[in-house]
Amino acid sequence: MTPSNARTVTSEAPAWRALAAPLLFDVALPLTVYYVLRSQGTGQWQALMLSGTVPVGRVAVMLAARRHVAGFETFMIGMLAVRVVTSLFTGDPRVLLVKDACLSVAAGVWILGSLLTARPFAFQMGQYWSAPAAQHGRDAAWHRSPALRGALTRLTVLWGCGQVLDCVVGVTIATTCAVEAVPALNRAKGLALLGLAAIVTVLYSRHCLRRRGLSLFGTVPLRTRHPRVAPRTYDPQAHDTEERTSHHDRT
């Protein structure tokens, strides 16, 4: 199987599978590893460090399978590298938790900074999950449609600001709550904000499809809308006129 075919198969996988992998390897397994290690008497700092290796392993396997690195994947690798390197300079678990929360603002800055590039974050995400054939169509639609560019720009602002808010709330939790509770609270907070942003994205995407004929993340971004034909109402006077005209034509 060639890399392009592998990407096509991945892109055609069910949506639940694409969402389940990050939730499992970035949320559920790290939490499980942390609390299992703590129950066995492992120190807080060591448990936090070891639980952080799970997402690193997932990214390594993903890159080995795809054999190429996209822009979004480069950002993920950079975030994980910063987490690992900075963790080596402190043995305070609370500092480690605050630092992890602050990584969200780096994600927010990166997402908002993509507005200054040729393709914003929302467009890049659509390309990331699309098959190669669909990527070409989406790229052409990006050049043709100002409405598509505006809609994806607004979604990029939404996700970038959401990450900044995630950082503010995460730092507050990390500095005020008990260390043992912070990993679970921050994961729950992250899922809540992610879910809210996803709901807004879905609702806005449906609005664009219904009102403007734009499929923001579909394989055919620009849909041709057929004009609605108003239902014909019965007019007695017009009906009589048509009957007389028809009778005159027959005679």
Describe the protein in words.
The protein is mainly α and 251 residues long. The chain is 76% helix and 0% strand. The protein contains 11 helices and no strands. The N and C termini lie far apart (75 Å). The model is unreliable at 1-16 and 224-230 (pLDDT under 50).
| Low-pLDDT stretches | 1-16, 224-230
Q: What percent strand?
A: under 5%
The N- and C-terminal alpha carbons lie at a distance of 75 Å
Shape: elongated
- Counting H and I runs of at least 4 residues, what is the number of helices? 11
Give the biggest beta sheet. none
Radius of gyration: 26 Å
Task: Output the helix-strand order.
Answer: HHHHHHHHHHH
Overall strand count: 0
Share of residues in helices? over 70%
Helix/strand-derived category reads mainly alpha
Q: Roughly what is the average pLDDT, rounded to an integer? A: 76
Would you spell out the secondary-structure blueprint of this structure?
Elements: H1 3-11, H2 15-39, H3 44-51, H4 53-66, H5 71-87, H6 93-113, H7 121-128, H8 132-144, H9 146-176, H10 182-212, H11 236-250
Keywords:
251 residues, mainly alpha, 76% helix, elongated
TL;DR of this structure?
By secondary structure, the protein is mainly α. The protein has helices at 3-11, 15-39, 44-51, 53-66, 71-87, 93-113, 121-128, 132-144, 146-176, 182-212, 236-250. It is 76% helix and 0% strand.
